[in-house]
Amino acid sequence: MDVSGGESVATPVQQKAHEAWRIYQHYLDKTTPLPTYRWIGTAIVALAYCLRVYYLQGFYIIAYGLGIYLLNLLIGFLSPLVDPEAAGGSDGPSLPTRGSDEFKPFIRRLPEFKFWYSVTKAFCIAFVMTFFSVFDVPVFWPILLCYWIVLFVLTMRRQISHMIKYKYIPFSFGKQKYGGRSSSSGSRAE
After folding, report:
1. Could you tell me the pTM of the whole model?
2. How far apart are CA 62 and CA 51, in angstroms?
3. DSSP string for 150-185
4. Are 68 and 147 in contact (CB under 8 A)?
């Protein structure tokens, strides 16, 4: 429905929902430059979820599904945006494979902020799911744990061998840092 001025008429519920979304987005944007505090908050949410599952002694299938999802996110976080194996001989950007190749920065397939946001959302959704008994499927949890550990080890071994083969490190700590030009040399004219 349009008013004669071209503006759409929203119900009060839609207006309140939109305002709540804008406030949520504002605070989410304010957390962008604070990765340490974001991850501390996620660790607190994860701890609350783990304690709830431990004290309820159930909801192991949700924990298993959460573990598989987190493993999938971790692979996306550790993988380059352009996979050198899949790109083959394409003309797009690729990772250097020899020492003489031009340096190209590592660009993640899943950026850190999206990784954090997805992990936090996953823990929150899993936490809420523990309040509904329909999700408490009786399973023998040691089998799920063993299967998840095997899956994690095999996946990480494949990912690490891919990192070694194409010589990329997805983390910035431990890398050599270069300083900018010193400002003491006033002008460039000789």
Report:
1. 0.75
2. 14
3. HHHHHHHHHHHHHHHHTT--S--TTS-------TTS
4. no
Q: And the tokens for 2?
A: 């349009």
80 three-class SS: strand
Question: 173: how many CB neighbours lie within 10 A of its CB?
Answer: 5
Q: Are the CB atoms for 108 and 80 separated by under 8 Å?
A: yes
What pLDDT tens digit does each residue of the chain (190 aa) get?
Answer: 545 555 667 899 999 999 999 999 999 999 999 999 999 999 999 999 999 999 999 999 999 999 999 999 999 998 888 877 776 655 555 555 666 666 667 788 889 999 999 999 999 999 999 999 999 999 999 999 999 999 999 999 999 888 888 777 777 665 556 665 655 555 544 4
Q: Identify any residues that bridge with 80 across adjacent strands, giving them in sequence order.
A: 108
> SS3 of 106, please?
coil
Can you read off the two tokens belonging to residue 90? Answer: 């394409």
Q: Which amino acid is at 124?
A: C
Q: What's the token pair of residue 181?
A: 């030009």
Given a contact cutoff of 8 angstroms between Cβ atoms, the answer to whether 139 and 53 are in contact is no
